[in-house]
Amino acid sequence: MNLFQVVGHSTIGHLNRIGRATLFLRQTLLGCGPIFVRGRLIVEQIHAVGVLTVMIIVVAGLFVGMVLGFQGYHTLIDFGAESSLGLLVAVSLTRELGPVLSALLFAGRAGSAITAEIGLMKATDQIAGMEMMAVDPVSRVVAPRFLAGIIALPLLAAMFSAVGIGGGYLIGTLQLGVDSGVYWSTMQQGIDFYDDILNGVIKSVVFGVVVAWIAVFEGYDATPTSEGVAQATKRTVVIASISVLALDYLLTALMFGGI
Predict the structure, then answer these.
(1) For the chain, how many structural domains are there in total?
(2) Per-residue pLDDT tens for 181-203?
(3) Residue 25: which domain range?
(4) Where is pLDDT greater, at 64 or 9?
(5) Which of 1, 97, 191, 213 is the residue whose CA sits 20 to 30 A from 182?
(6) Helix H or strand E encompassing 72
(7) What is the C-alpha separation between 176 and 70, in angstroms, rounded?
(8) At what angle do helices 54-76 and 98-106 cross, to 10 degrees?
(9) Would you state the pLDDT for residue 37?
(10) For the residues 53-77, what does the mean pLDDT come to?
């Protein structure tokens, strides 16, 4: 095969996969309706993908906030603006770092777990068994995990930002000598609900949809072997991470008039 054949074959394969993923998303959305009758399934999955991810979110948020406190202080002090440390930390976390880093951590921890779980169910013929018993596996298995991801990620991103702001406060006030009242007052005066907080929430919701969609599709589409499940898990982390970073640029450009 020459170069054009290789590129063409690869392009057609990727487009075919994107088309199947889009049809699967439609099937998943249709399967989300009946699931609200059995809310216990959603609660269980929120615990699995959300509550069990809290620890890594809290630890990462704390250290990211502390690093921002250090870096921000030594940058602002050159301009005599160290009193704006609280605003710098809060804007950085609520607009960008909170939603983006939470989504990346969520993809690595919860997204990979969702893919592995669904892929293993397919490899052990549990999915086929449900179909034989006239149970819709999309409604019973996929939809709860998809909805749980959409619900959990915005909450995790908010927690990441809150803990990060606290970490910046600890470094700024206890170690670097920034006045506590100044730290909070500049933050409260400078943070805008629509431009900062709401935009961050919108980003985290979009990231939640995309990461959960990729995770459930890769698991459901995985080759039913141990190697196939491993490859699907790897694809989930890689594709979800790249998608989050690309969408972050697009959403930021749309929100702040870059497009």
Answers:
(1) 1
(2) 999 999 988 888 888 899 999 99
(3) 3-255
(4) 64
(5) 97
(6) helix 54-76
(7) 8
(8) 150
(9) 72
(10) 94
Q: At what angle do helices 143-169 and 3-35 cross, to 10 degrees?
A: 90
Question: Whole-angstrom Cα distance, residue 220 to residue 63?
Answer: 35
Taken in order 144, 146, 149, 154, is the CA torsion positive or negative?
A: negative
- Distance in angstroms (rounded) separating the CA atoms of residues 206 and 209: 5
- Taking 90 as the threshold, does the pLDDT of residue 83 lie above it? no
Mean pLDDT of the region 105-126: 93
Q: Indicate the helix (H) or strand (E) that contains 80.
A: none
- Rounded to whole angstroms, the Cα distance separating 9 from 193 reads 48
Provide, for the chain, the percentages of residues in helix, strand and coil under a 3-state DSSP scheme, each rounded to the nearest 5. 90, 0, 10
> To which residue do tokens 């160290």 refer?
82
The CA radius of gyration of the chain, in Å to the nearest whole number, is: 21
> Which pair of structure tokens corresponds to residue 91?
């804007």
